Amino acid sequence: MNQKEMLAELKNFDTPSITNVVATYPESALCLGLYNPWSENWYTDTSIRCMYPELGRRVGYAVTCVYGLPDPNYSRLSFMDVLEAMEASPQPTVLVIEQKFPREIASKVGLAGGNMVSAMKALGCVGLLSNGPSRDLDEIREMDFQYMLSGVTAGHGAMAVHAVNVPVSVGGMDVAPGELIHMDENGACKFPADQLEAVLRNARALQKEEAARMSALQGAKSAAEIRAIFGGHSYGDDEE
Is the separation of the CB atoms in 146 and 96 below 8 Å? Predict the structure, then answer.
């Protein structure tokens, strides 16, 4: 399979399944153990919400930027620099915006909207992940573009790009440019792009294993039978 085909197939799996393969169960043969699951920031927390669960999963290469208030001492960057970074990236992309606004206005910055998203989508972007709000939910829904945000708000004031394609932290997840982002209504997680083939291979195997286990559990008639089915799994006894 080529890269495009692998990315497309990765959307057959929900984000919790991807986290299971990436790092959640380091003792599992199907877990790649790419991060310490608790000490490293590789998936989002409850501050991030999926705005369009009905639109399904998104997978893309991270393009990152930082937004904040205009700085009179620094005005080198604009949204066009973000778009140029997006165009230079492997496709498809997910734009990850770390919003660094003062606390008193951070929840009122409706950063992205119809115009920005139209330009992003034209360059192969499939979703936006940000630790702050955005706006124009009705317009964006019709574009089949995914929003993963802290919330929504209707307006904003002057704002500026402070950095493009730098490491950022959004919703408890640290993201470097070029990492792969997998996101859906459960949240988002990341992993190195060079692990794409391994993540897909193990996700396939995990899906088969879990389908068989859940089918057996749903047909179980006793706690003893369930104990046997769970044997060797984290839900079961350690000695099994």
Answer: no
